[in-house]
Amino acid sequence: MAIFLKILFGKKSLYRWGCLALLAFAFQPAFAQVLPRAGATRPVTADGQNRPNVQGQTQSRDTIGFEHRDDLADSITISYRYLDSLRSNNLDSSINDYGKIFTIPTGYVTLGNNGSAAYPVLFSPYAKAGWDAGFHAFEVYKYNIENTRFYKTTRPFTQLSYLLAGGKEQVVKVLHTQNIQPNWNAGFEYRLISSPGLFQTQNVNHNNYRLFSNYQGKRKRYAAWFVILANKLSASENGGIQDDSYLQDPERERRFTVPVKLGTEQGSGFNVFSTNISTGNLYNNFTAFLRQSYDLGIKDSLIINDSTTEYLFYPKFRFQHTISYNTYSHQFKDELSNQEEAQKDSAYFNQNYNLTLRPNYSGLNFWRIDEWKSVSNDLVIRQFPQTKNPGQFIQAGVRIDNFSGEFTSSPNPIYPVQIFPPPPIRENFYNIVLHGEYRNKTRNRKWDALLNGEFYTAGYNAADFNLKAVLNRLLNARLGDIEVSFQNVNRKPSYIFQSNSSFNLDSVSLNKKENITIITFQANNPRFSLMARNISIANYAYFTNFYEKEQYSGLINLTQVTAATKNRITRHLNLYSDFIVQQTTGQTPIRVPLFYTRQRLAFEGNFFKNLFLSTGIDVKYNTPYKANNYSPVMGKFVPQDSITISNLPQLNVFFNFRIKSFSAFITAENLNTATLNDGFAFTNNNFAAPHYPTPGFLLRFGLQWRFVN
């Protein structure tokens, strides 16, 4: 019996190899054949004779035998960098935080549905000089050049993620990357967020894709980075529920029966891959990006063996050109064929936007569209003072941006006799930008420095500028590193605040330059991280209500302190703590909670060799405050002073585990909404904004596979 078990389950078992063969056959579309490592092959000559292997032994081609499995044959070395970053990063395989694979990062609040408008608890201003369309409520769901990863891997790598939650919510994520040649990597990403929501007119469908590649010439002089990406974001808007008291009605425990302020009771057509939005926002953008560089410097080479030479190159000068083409479309529409719903929406627009919409026999047709196209050309010259330190350089460059915009709106609602939309407004302009940078990344990390700036010399954003300085020092392995940074941005308000925009409903333009100053101190070590930041804003541009604009005449000062720690209570019991304290001076249009915390108590560890487990409770809480309201047409969070949002601590329970390359995440969310009024139910909802309740109990599942092909 012992011999039988050894044959069945032993390391050299026929059973194991048979199972692997069956799995390889079953998953042929997903897996490529695993080739032996270099040095472990046994080549055959043209006459069919076996050549000696590296140990001088031979093996017949017709011999059938058992060979000890080499686990390193499936190993992979993979890293990635972001554009303009010198730091190489490794993939994160930790399982202690579901937010790492979820589409909404930890610390963000949504309007109650995955994919709906979101904002971070830790306030951060839009601190970029130059042109900006002004629509950022859905920014967290977008692919962009800044969050594109350029990989380097020794084997083809694939990552598949699937997330499922109540209310038919689904998320699909696909990533594949491989080195076509040792110096050429390419890959693609795709993400789908599909959720009908638990309330009426709340369905969401977001699609993102990205193709990326980076190449370096064999002699390491020429390099190229290439990206094509697109985002198609479709989100219905319901304007919030009509009355908060409906949430306590036992006959409306099924939340789809709660009346909302916008949209149709039947809801828009919902499909996992495509959703028909009748009332809501549709944001689309496309980007094609190409950067090329060529270096001049000192050549060298390293002979590995008789047939292999490793070419070395130490750059002294780099000539770099970047070209990008972008299109943007931001649309709000309300198209209803139901007369009763059209009357309801008409009253909503009249009350909140001072628009007199007169539904006709076909219902209601209202829309606003801003569309943009831009082409950017950037030329840079970089000089490396130290021959063998590419992390230290000085660069200067010039960029020319060309923009064309088209702004379309529905027929003037005041005159019902006008049935044709007015001709679109068009505008063309340019920007000329001078920019420079000094960077020094030392090997011992004692003094790393960054200083960069850009100045808009001519064009639409003339006199905009951005200055940034960062100084980082590593103290030691135990104390970690500290960083001090300073940033000052002078910028013209986003285009949504200009009179030409179709979203301008009060015919006012805001043209005073916003000036933003951010001073930050950070400390990071293996036990905790600490950040203290002061934000000062002059001429802050904002919406005072759903459509009227203004610039704050005083100086806004916002002080923020954040801390994150990990404390081991017992061998397998850990407490993860995050804290945020932030406060503004005086009565400003920026609304933030004074205190926010997230506490995770997790039982975790490595069990049974390959099982990694993390399970426990997750609690989030912030102090009461007058949270921003939300303007559906503008896609903007706007300040309000009438309603204080006071929520119970959000309580979640999670069970996460990983077995080799497979990870699973299970969370039971919003247990705090349980109530015994009129029977047990999860109907004591929290609120994200006035009249925007968050869901009750939700059960989420997440699966993630990583394949080495």
Task: Walk me through this protein's architecture.
The chain is mainly beta and 709 residues long. The chain has a single domain, classed as Maltoporin, Chain A (Beta Barrel), CATH 2.40.170. Helices cover 5% and strands 49% of the residues. The protein has 3 helices and 34 strands. The protein has helices spanning 2-9, 14-26, 339-353; strands at residues 78-82, 108-110, 118-120, 149-153, 157-165, 169-181, 184-195, 204-216, 222-236, 279-303, 309-336, 364-383, 392-409, 425-440, 448-459, 465-476, 480-491, 514-524, 528-538, 541-543, 549-551, 555-568, 573-584, 595-607, 611-622, 629-631, 636-638, 650-659, 662-669, 674-675, 681-682, 687-689, 692-693, 698-708. The strands form 7 sheets. It has a 22-stranded antiparallel barrel. Strand 2 (108-110) and strand 3 form a beta hairpin. The longest helix is centred in the middle third of the chain and has 15 residues, at 339-353. The protein is globular. The chain starts with a helix and ends with a strand. The model is unreliable at 1-73 (pLDDT under 50).
List the helices and strands and how they pair.
Layout: H1 2-9, H2 14-26, E1 78-82, E2 108-110, E3 118-120, E4 149-153, E5 157-165, E6 169-181, E7 184-195, E8 204-216, E9 222-236, E10 279-303, E11 309-336, H3 339-353, E12 364-383, E13 392-409, E14 425-440, E15 448-459, E16 465-476, E17 480-491, E18 514-524, E19 528-538, E20 541-543, E21 549-551, E22 555-568, E23 573-584, E24 595-607, E25 611-622, E26 629-631, E27 636-638, E28 650-659, E29 662-669, E30 674-675, E31 681-682, E32 687-689, E33 692-693, E34 698-708
Antiparallel strand pairs: 1-4, 2-3, 5-6, 5-34, 6-7, 7-8, 8-9, 9-10, 10-11, 11-12, 12-13, 13-14, 14-15, 15-16, 16-17, 17-18, 18-19, 19-22, 20-21, 22-23, 23-24, 24-25, 25-28, 26-27, 28-29, 29-34, 30-31, 32-33
